[in-house]
Amino acid sequence: MKKDIQIPVVKDVYIAIVNEYNDIYKTQDWNAYIINDKDVDLEMVLIVTSGYTEDKMTSIFRKKLDLLPKKSYAKIELMQEDLFALNNQFKVTFFENNKMFDKTYTFRKNTINLQALQPLSLMEARGVLVK
Predict the structure, then answer these.
(1) Interval 68-89: pLDDT, tens
(2) Which of 12, 49, 65, 122 is the most buried (most CB within 10 A)?
């Protein structure tokens, strides 16, 4: 029976933490984004985030996007720098062509920093990316 279960592999969907200037508050902010680099739209995108270490855990944050168009991105949340000392986990579930996909993205503690920034093609920005 287990051999009959097919678990689809998630490709071309990423999570990025981007350091960007906030025009309203005149500050440098860290924001989490989901990137859809596929040639198809993603439907009913559910994102559950949390931070943790061996002895600490943050509250759980949930975000739902009805539609994430192909070759696009969407902001998930503003992240405080204090969270970078924790492992930050993003559990992403979505539907593509009426098939459910699920993947967990983890930013290990202290891996989000200015030295780790790299160019993000779809966003024309620099950030830390997990594939």
Answers:
(1) 999 999 999 999 999 999 999 9
(2) 49
Q: Which residues pair with 59 in a beta bridge?
A: none
Q: What is the identity of the amino acid at 70?
A: K
Q: What own/partner pairs with CB < 8 Å and gap ≥ 24 does 43-46 have?
A: 43/67, 43/94, 43/95, 43/96, 44/94, 44/95, 45/74, 45/92, 45/93, 45/94, 46/92, 46/93, 46/94
Tokens standing for 23? 């025009």
Report which DSSP code applies to 11. -
Is residue 79 a contact partner of residue 17, using CB atoms and an 8 Å limit?
A: yes
Nearest to 105 by CA among 81, 89, 127: 89
**What whole-number distance in Å separates Cα of residue 25 and Cα of residue 43?**
33
Taking alpha carbons only, the member of 55, 21, 44, 29 closest to residue 94 is: 44
pLDDT at 51 over 70: yes
DSSP letter, residue 37: -
Is 60 in contact with 50 (CB distance < 8 Å)? yes
